[in-house]
Amino acid sequence: MAYQFEQINPTAEEWQRIEETYDSTCFHTKQWCDYLHRIHYAPIIIAVKADGVHIGYFVGEKIWRGFTLITAPFEGIGTYTQGLCFFEEISQEQRICIYIQLADWFVKHNIAYYLQVDDWQLRCDRTDWIPNNQFTHPLLDKYAVQYEVRPTLHVALKGKSEEELWAACHYKSCKYSVNKARKHNLRIKIIDRFEDIRSFTQVHHDQLVEVCAHKGMKPKPSQSRQRMQALCESLFPDRVLMLEVVGPDDNGVEQVMSSGIFCIDKGECSYWTGASYQRYQKYCPNELMVWEAMRMLRDRGAGDLNFCGMASYKLKFGTIYAYVPRLIFTKYRFIYNLKTFAKHCFYDTRLFAANIIRKFRTAAK
Fold first, then answer.
1. Which end of the chain is less enclosed by CB atoms within 10 A, N or C?
2. Is-above-0.70 flag for pTM?
3. Which ranges of the chain have pLDDT less than 50?
């Protein structure tokens, strides 16, 4: 089938249509694109037609790094998955065919020679872990599409009762911790006033800085306080869940022990970031926060909660492995090689700096 594409500047009505597609996520919305504008990234929206009939949209970013990249999403800006979204359900094979034609369209119209997509609908769910280099996607292999893999953990919330979600949690590492937090009179506080966002993100950022310092590293750029505030203000009130866990310390003084940011949508919700002060971790505030967030998101009609990573502690919440392929289309191989080299340089430099900091701290002790 032949597909047609048109770059658009969506009206309010078109944004509503995008957000009503069956597979859109928070990362496809106008509010998320407003956040991208605030952190100086340019969203790109493409209308997709099949034989002249409008069937959906593509949402991503147009990035200039010496050459133009179309990414959905770009690394380091807090966006986990993007790409195509449709009015009616389509198969994975149809989705891949559309990406192939879209990449060719970008080249033909001199918009970009590089397209990168992480599409939640192309993921492969597994109950067991496999190394990244052993992951294969038969349909992508069939069409000879280049891809990498971004593994994550997620839990399906849709159609499950609270009892089913609780039963799937591990007893010792999750249920025991949640009950311990409750026994210590910890409770959840929802940040539901716009004017409280700045102070919330300040505390949350302080907690994150402490966590990163404990690991011997600095916070990633995407976790700066300014970006956290921009995200929460852009998504407020209906697409962000900001939580604090408060309770008495050993002296009976109420403290904010942990906090988290969750991005909300009818389909894929995301555990965007979470942190706690190390001195309060003995009270298990993180487990209580994540469990209560799962309950709240389920009640709001969420489909999946993406934990946005593979940290082992996330397994305790009854999660399963999701292997999200990163589709890569490039006219010139050197563009991919340069981008990969720059990415490795960034992470290697950050790791080197973290090791130096860790050595100095160890020597100081």
1. C
2. yes
3. 219, 221
